[in-house]
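Box 3.1. Reading complex inputs
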Amino acid sequence: MTAYIKKQVLLKAEHVQLNYGDNVILRDINFEIKDIIRPGMQQGQVVSLIGRSGMGKTQLFKLLSGLQVPTAGNICIQDNQPVKAGDMGVIFQNYYLFEWRTVYQSLLLAAKQNLQLKGKEKENIEAYAERFQLTEQLKQYPQQLSGGQRQRASIIQQLLKGSDFLLLDEPFSGLDVCVLDKVVELLLEVSVTDEFKTLIIVSHDIPACVAISDTIFILGREAGKPGATIVKEIDLIERGLAWQKEVRYLPAFADTVEEIKACL
Amino acid sequence: MVVLQALVTLLLWQTASNGLIPPPGKVANAFLHLLSTRLLIDNLLVSLLLTIKAMLLSILITLLIAYLSVIPFFKGIAQFIVKCRYLTLTGLIFIFTLLTKDGSQLKLSLLIFGIVPFFTCSFLAVIFNIDKQEFELCKTLGYNNWQTLYEVIIVGKADQAFEILRQNFAISWLMITMVEGLNMSEGGIGALMIKYNKYNDLTNVLALQLVIFLVGLLFDYLLGSIRLWLFPHTKLQIQVS
């Protein structure tokens, strides 16, 4: 098994609850994301939150991004600070970009929000664009981009903003098999850009999530209790399923997918 | 097709002319004669300058009202201004006469009062229909409220403000002839038309209508072209739709 240790807590959700009136949407959500340290390499974290449609994934996504405030409980990141809008890089499901800005202008706006890039915005944009094969599209408007190019532009935008966390809403939705592999590859590449880089994927695509993540949290319902909660945590590193390129061919992969299905 | 439709219209017009309505040939001659006179150019310039002045002031007032409408206190005021579309200018002329210093100010004030509710109505609709995700994207990028207002409403909707300006030019152009009739000393195409109407010179009235129509079309085209030049992404939206 690959050597690793889990160290400091990067994100902690404690007793998070979300109600709409009397309707309980999310109940007592508790989980932690820790920094994974692998000797001799820069390894970020990839965590997936899996749940069936209508289970409250989008609400949890909004709570994690700080766009919505929980009814009770809290979600804290570095230094135990409650998460607020702007703390996390957020990639919406439809890869929303400002339609009136060229890709370059959008990226520049994001880079200007990052004080660490002050005076070096242009170089960083060009470097990311080259890395993610978007150099030729920098002068184009979002309407001129393909779905994949939009996704990459959205990811670069949030990376330039400088947050350690990248929250992705259904990044595998509606993708064909070939494109799906490319997206998985892209996200894995993003995850190793920094030791503290943490990708949180909210999705219902079980195989894609297992193939990319190091930890899976399953959002489901408990009998006789209202609202959805985290019903199971699966450590994919312990099962030898993390950081493996050919993970889909391992027997443990199929078993894990089946196990998750059974929990939903 | 358009040529054929125009020919059919002219033919119908020609056959319907029974002495009371001047035939198209006569109107065309009057139109060409008007074009060659200084009278038309001078009056047209007066009207155009007044319209442009009123449009610019109206759009400034509208944008101010619309931007402020995101603050709850001003929302009600903005909605009241929208309702002012149903007020008729005729009943307010006396009040405006008392409030303004001279005829020039009276015309300008009436035009602005007439245009602003329509501008505001259109622009508020744009603001109310903004996709929530535009605001959410700003929040995720760490923008404060002013940065969000600037990016989403001021910069992001500038093309639509320009489109409203283009669409409402017709309203301003329609009102100009009416308000110019209130103070004829400064001239203008409205004053010229009233003069022709007074002497039952229907041929020149129709020729002048043709001028007004063509100037309207020209401005519509010009504003449309400027919009595409200033906001290239709108060209892509047109292609997509």
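In summary: The first helix of chain B runs from residue 2 to 16.
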